[in-house]
Design brief:
This protein has 21 helices and 37 strands. α8 (about 350-355) crosses α9 (about 360-370) and α12 (about 485-490) runs parallel beside α13 (about 510-520). Mean pLDDT is about 75; it is low at about 5-10, about 20-25, about 55-95 and about 185-290. Its main location: cytoplasm.
């Protein structure tokens, strides 16, 4: 390939311009030569024999003939011609005249041949490059193998390098001395005594006696390449000229470009001679040629310019060798690597095998030995996975989906961060004892007047500012028996409980329940005896009834405050507030307002215009508009906040109840809410809680269906009847209370099943659900949409509207009774004594009897008693008096009776008569 590159470089440029330019010689003969290369390649080149121009020797000061411009004068009237090469036309066209058609055809043919050859050369070049790429891949594989071997022999080579270093220094000194004393011309024919590095190789060129000042032929420095247009003086003989060593840096072209001579621009004695190519040096095993163009002059003179491996490369090789040796040792010794395997709540067998770095078949076998038949794609629980991991000898680290809630509540506040906060007081007591009226007197409002039925059916939260500027937060709970969950929520979030007891009514069931809630929450209790303005009230009776439930008031020597008040007359309200503030001062209530908000959802509802609305009580931190909050299984950004009077707020401090808008859904009452830092965490927590809620509902549905034995028992006894109900309420607490109330109405024969319970208006989906399940729709303080009403009328779905909770219970109980099967009840008629037995051929034995009690009717049921023991039970076949059939025989009269299919009667037996009637179930 070097000869090919030289011949390509020696070719002149073909053109259709006429000849006649000044040249160094003319072509005497021309021809083509076919060159053959390895791998079946070949090339046809054009060979010309150039005649030397006669003339005297050129002086050193003159420009060579191959320069960019001819030195002779330009002929007059003739075009200026290039002297870069001889004429390629193959004809003897004279300078100055135009080409004839034959010459132009010849030149065109030569130009076409040149193009064809150029295309052939480019095709061969592409093949050569493809071959080089394949060779590079093989070389890379070979280098990788050499690196592996080098890593194994690193320790031995390190010792060998120390020994060879001394020998190399002595050898270099000897070579330097030999180079300084040896003749200059000797390297032309004899090889050098030592290995020549590739960076220090340079061709030996003849130099003229007087060196030109600006001649391009001489090298000005050790890294300069000779100029392409440089030519040696013709007068100086090449053999007699002294040789001079030069240094030339490695170029990007590789060995092929370094061996190729400079491009010839014209014929001449110097250009005809080819430099002696240096022998190719074998590539280093590492193959790192990034610094091939750099050379150290001293190293090049001493012959020690071969690159050595860097310390980092040696360290990497030793590290690889150490890892391989460690792995080989572990495999040979059978030492098992112990890993920390993360086991979630549910994991597939294949994933467990991957985490243990074990084969899936081995894990399946281990499960089979444990009695678990599972494939690779099946899911196993965390306990089974832990047993498998322990059997394989690894360490188990259990994780759970509930880990997403870790750190949600934040850190514990220090004493320096806590600031005083208003107390939270819950008003509890029996229904119609004046709880809401007492709050109205404190707030100067009329909430009780707007309540349906005169009873509170919602939980309310308000904040009152007393005369001294202090604030008190009140939570009003309903007193009806169905709102137990509301009262429990109120007791759980409060600091103290004000137990309202009517002076004229005393302690009632819900009063006792409120006492139990307060004890369970471990909060102080203040007794407010209401309605003291009525005549004939007895406070001692209330104190004694409270004493029965371990509530000892201060008037009886206890520690529970007792304050008699009147909500309608506004009596002693200031004393009640004073007692509340005194108790709050004793409790020393504090909270940290400089943190993320946390609290409890007191109530929630679905508003038609505003969407999901939640009433929350901030317990710690400060809730601000725009915060991201997670409330139960719902999340959202707080778009607006309203206080109990409907005023917009920008932030809510601790102990302040507010309504927030912007949640994704209606959260469950009693759930906690917390402000989080970003939306992704809020989504993650919400999705986890929703999955738990769905699993809980699915488990409850499965438990309601019962086991296979229960199903078979129902099939044997007949399908159990049920009353299906769809509940829609205005708030979440009411829906919860309705669900509890309706479930209590279930019986053994008829079960009340709540298909769906939610807040908001009745929609078409609710009607379709009720139609599919033959259910009724219970609407509590809500109405149906126009489309839902039309669909209900068209499909015949019953929608019942209520505003008082006990009316719901009464109506559903009637439905349950209507579903009950009628009851067969036995009615006693009377007794008769057998006085004589008559035998009749056609009728059998006839008993002559006297009615001793009650009445005997024809066709009634009878029991035959002998010595007080029932020996037969059946029906009365005939009843006669004398010879006539009668319908009944009353007390004191005699009659004749016969039993159906029974004749074993004796004198003295007693007959009990009864009839069966069907009555509605209760």
């Amino acid at each position: 390939m070097s000869d090919q590159n030289e011949q390509d470089a020696a070719k002149g440029r073909l053109s259709l311009r006429p000849g006649g330019r000044l040249e160094l010689g003319k072509t005497e003969a021309a021809g083509t030569v076919r060159q053959s290369f390895s791998h079946g390649r070949g090339k046809t080149v054009q060979v010309e024999v150039v005649k030397k121009r006669a003339g005297g020797p050129a002086t050193p000061g003159t420009r060579p003939a191959g320069g960019p411009q001819a030195t002779g004068p330009r002929p007059a009237g003739g075009p200026q011609r290039s002297a870069s090469g001889p004429s390629r036309g193959g004809s003897g066209a004279t300078p100055g005249r135009p080409l004839n058609q034959a010459e132009q055809a010849t030149r065109l043919r030569v130009l076409e041949e040149h193009r064809r050859q150029e295309a052939q050369r480019q095709r061969e070049e592409r093949e050569r490059q493809a071959l080089m790429v394949r060779s590079a891949a093989e070389e890379a594989a070979r280098k990788a193998e050499e690196e592996r071997r080098a890593a194994e022999e690193a320790a031995a080579r390190a010792e060998e390098e120390a020994r060879q270093k001394t020998e190399d220094e002595a050898r270099r000194k000897t070579e330097v001395e030999a180079r300084s004393t040896a003749p200059v011309a000797a390297p032309l024919s004899a090889p050098r005594p030592g290995p020549i590095p590739s960076q220090a190789r340079a061709p030996v060129r003849p130099a003229p006696g007087p060196r030109p000042a600006a001649g391009p032929g001489g090298a000005a420095g050790p890294a300069r390449r000779p100029a392409p247009a440089a030519a040696a003086p013709a007068a100086a003989p090449a053999a007699a000229a002294p040789a001079r060593l030069t240094l030339r840096g490695r170029e990007e072209g590789g060995e092929e470009e370094r061996r190729s001579p400079p491009r010839r621009t014209g014929p001449g004695p110097a250009a005809a001679k080819k430099p002696v190519p240096a022998p190719a040096r074998k590539a280093a095993p590492g193959g790192d040629r990034r610094r091939d163009g750099r050379i150290d002059v001293a190293a090049a003179i001493e012959g020690d310019d071969d690159r050595s491996r860097s310390m980092a490369s040696v360290r990497r090789a030793r590290e690889r060798e150490r890892r391989q040796q460690e792995l080989q040792r572990l495999r040979s010794d059978g030492v098992k690597v112990v890993r920390d395997v993360v086991v979630p709540e549910a994991i597939t067998v294949q994933e467990l095998a991957n985490r243990m770095a074990a084969r899936g078949g081995e894990v399946v076998k281990a499960l089979f030995r444990m009695g678990v038949m599972a494939t690779l794609t099946q899911t196993i629980d965390a306990d089974t996975a832990e047993l498998v991991v322990n059997e394989f000898g690894h360490r188990v680290r259990r994780v759970s989906e509930a880990d997403v809630e870790q750190g949600l509540e934040g850190v514990v506040d220090t004493d320096e961060e806590l600031l005083p906060r208003p107390p939270v007081v819950t008003i509890m007591g029996h229904v119609d004892h004046g709880k809401t009226s007492l709050l109205d007197a404190l707030r100067k409002t009329d909430v009780a007047g707007r309540e349906a039925g005169g009873i509170t059916q919602h939980i309310g939260a308000y904040q009152v500012t007393v005369e001294g500027g202090q604030k008190v937060t009140f939570i009003d709970t309903p007193g009806h028996a169905a709102f137990t969950a509301m009262r429990a929520r109120g007791a759980s979030v409060t600091d103290m409980v004000v137990l309202v007891v009517a002076a004229d009514d005393g302690v009632m069931p819900q009063t006792i329940e409120a006492i139990h809630h307060a004890k369970a929450a471990n909060v102080p209790l203040i007794v407010a005896v209401n309605k003291i303005d009525k005549e004939g009230v007895n406070l001692d009776r209330v104190r004694n009834e409270l004493l029965q439930h371990e509530i000892v008031v201060e008037s009886l020597g206890g520690d529970t405050m007792e304050i008699p008040v009147s909500a309608t007359k506004a009596m002693n309200l200031d004393k009640l507030l004073e007692g509340i503030l005194l108790q709050a001062e004793v409790l020393d209530l504090k909270a940290n307002p400089m943190r993320a908000a946390e609290g409890t959802v007191i109530e929630s509802k679905l508003d038609k215009g505003r969407g999901p609305v939640a009433t929350v009580l901030v317990q710690r931190g400060t809730l601000r508009q725009g915060d991201l909050v997670v409330a139960g299984a719902e999340w959202g950004r707080v778009r607006a906040m309203l206080d109990d009077k409907g005023r917009q707020l920008k932030e809510a401090d601790p102990s302040l109840p507010v309504e927030i808008l912007g949640l994704s859904g209606v959260p469950s009452a009693g759930e906690t809410f917390v402000a989080v830092e970003n939306e992704s965490r809020a989504r993650e927590i919400s999705e986890f809680r929703q999955r738990k809620l769905r699993d809980k509902q699915a488990a409850a549905a499965g438990a309601a269906r019962g086991t296979l034995a229960d199903m078979m028992a129902r099939v044997a006894a007949g399908e159990q009847k049920e009353v299906a109900v769809v509940v829609k309420a205005d708030v979440q607490g009411s829906a919860e209370a309705l669900g509890v109330t309706l479930n209590k109405l279930s019986r053994d024969e008829v079960k009340v099943r709540v298909l769906h319970s939610a807040v908001g208006q009745i929609t078409e989906s609710d009607i379709q659900l009720a139609k599919a399940s033959n259910a009724i729709v219970v609407a509590f303080n809500v109405r149906a949409t126009a489309q839902a009403r039309e669909l209900a009328q068209r499909e015949g779905v019953d929608i019942r509207y209520y505003s008082i909770i006990y009316e719901v219970a009464d109506d559903v109980e009637k439905l349950v009774r209507g579903k009950l099967a009628p009851v067969q009840r036995e009615k006693f008629l009377g007794y008769a004594q057998i006085l004589e037995v008559f035998e009749v051929k056609r009728l059998g034995n006839i008993a002559g009897c006297r009615v001793t009690e009650g009445v005997v009717k024809r066709g009634c049921g009878v029991r035959l008693l002998r010595d007080g023991i029932v020996i037969h039970q059946g029906e009365l076949a005939t009843l006669r008096r004398f010879k006539d059939d009668v319908r009944e025989v009353t007390n004191g009269y005699e009659c004749g009776m016969s039993f159906a299919h029974y004749d074993d009667i004796k004198i003295g037996d007693q007959i009990e008569c009864y009839e069966t009637e069907t009555v509605a179930a209760v």
